[in-house]
């Protein structure tokens, strides 16, 4: 097995895992690395595996919240207690928030990708946009808890997630900015953002299973794919844990500055 090939997939898996949970755009960083360092993979199987690894990390971290939502959501049909009612509504809001990205992704996902896939300057510009959005909400400290959310909150955050289909627009960044802009507490915004990530990511995984099974290089690249998956899983887990601490301390301006620097650098070098 080619060591350089395994190293390439290790690097790409680590980049996906490190950048997926934090608001700096994993898709944008993968494009940057592939463009400037000539580390490329056009495999849909790779994308499915590393995204599934990030999904698994989110499921592990939020497993208690997921269990509680399922138990109380089902319990709502038996006993409409305040806790069951709150979690049942929260589930409904997650469903509503998933719809925009799901519909736009299915209908226009390929068109969006084709439109900007060969223009790295677009990633630089969208990273700067992400930075501006993060900067604007850096000092917000809302008051809304899980039980205070409403339908408008879910729709706005869902639309923000749909906008993040554009590489360079961070999914976590867009949804957290929208959630905090709607007055959610940082911990509520973070939880809603990543629970909203689960159905979308799960849908992408299901839609891509057929392509992955039919991948002619699946056997040949089994080891690099496994390395990328494990790298993405481990990196996603620790990156999200770290980001949860950052959110608790309110240091989002660090990510805004990072997006300004990287986005500006990418835009500049793409013009040279």
| Mean of residue pLDDT values | 91
Helix content: over 70%
State the secondary-structure class: mainly alpha
Identify the overall geometry. Answer: globular
Largest sheet: none
Tally of individual helices: 11
Distance between the termini: 37 Å
C-alpha Rg, in Å?
19 Å
| Counted beta strands | 0
Strand content: under 5%
Task: Please give the domain count.
Answer: 1
* String of helices and strands: HHHHHHHHHHH
- Low-pLDDT sequence parts: none
Protein topology:
Elements: H1 3-19, H2 26-36, H3 44-61, H4 63-75, H5 82-116, H6 120-136, H7 151-163, H8 171-181, H9 186-213, H10 222-249, H11 253-271
Helix pairs in contact: 1-2, 1-10, 2-6, 3-9, 3-10, 4-5, 5-7, 5-9, 6-11, 7-8, 8-9
Pfam family, one: BacA
Catalytic activity: di-trans,octa-cis-undecaprenyl diphosphate + H2O = di-trans,octa-cis-undecaprenyl phosphate + phosphate + H(+)
Subcellular location: Cell membrane
Summary of the model, kept short:
The chain has helices spanning 3-19, 26-36, 44-61, 63-75, 82-116, 120-136, 151-163, 171-181, 186-213, 222-249, 253-271.
List keywords for this structure.
272 residues, mainly alpha, 11 helices
Could you characterize the architecture of this molecule?
Helices cover 77% and strands 0% of the residues. The chain has helices at residues 3-19, 26-36, 44-61, 63-75, 82-116, 120-136, 151-163, 171-181, 186-213, 222-249, 253-271. The longest helix has 35 residues, at 82-116. The chain is globular. The model has no long low-confidence stretch (mean pLDDT 91). This is Undecaprenyl-diphosphatase. It holds the Pfam family BacA. Its EC number is 3.6.1.27. Catalyzes the dephosphorylation of undecaprenyl diphosphate (UPP). Confers resistance to bacitracin.
């Amino acid at each position: 097995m080619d060591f350089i090939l395994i190293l390439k997939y290790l690097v790409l898996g680590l980049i996906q895992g490190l950048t997926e949970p934090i608001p700096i755009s994993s898709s944008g960083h993968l494009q940057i690395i592939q463009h400037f360092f000539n580390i490329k993979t056009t495999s849909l199987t790779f994308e499915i595996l590393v995204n599934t690894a990030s999904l698994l990390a989110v499921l592990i971290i939020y497993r208690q919240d997921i269990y509680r939502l399922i138990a109380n959501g089902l319990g709502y049909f038996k006993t409409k207690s305040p806790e069951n009612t709150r979690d049942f509504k929260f589930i409904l809001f997650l469903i509503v928030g998933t719809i925009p990205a799901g519909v736009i992704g299915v209908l226009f996902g390929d068109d969006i990708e084709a439109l900007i896939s060969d223009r790295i300057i677009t990633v630089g510009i969208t990273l700067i946009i992400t930075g501006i959005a993060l900067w604007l909400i850096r000092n917000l400290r809302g008051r809304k808890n899980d039980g205070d959310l409403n339908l408008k909150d879910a729709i706005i955050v869902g639309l923000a997630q749909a906008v993040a289909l554009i590489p360079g627009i961070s999914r976590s960044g867009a949804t957290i900015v929208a959630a905090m802009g709607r007055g959610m507490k940082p911990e509520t915004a973070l939880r809603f953002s990543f629970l909203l990530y689960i159905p979308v990511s799960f849908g992408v995984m299901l839609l891509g299973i057929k392509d992955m099974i039919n991948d002619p290089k699946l056997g040949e690249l089994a080891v690099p794919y496994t390395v990328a998956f494990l790298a993405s899983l481990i990196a996603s887990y620790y990156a999200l844990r770290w980001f949860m601490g950052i959110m608790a301390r309110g240091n989002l301006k660090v990510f805004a500055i990072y997006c300004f620097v990287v986005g500006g650098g990418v835009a500049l070098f793409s013009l040279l």
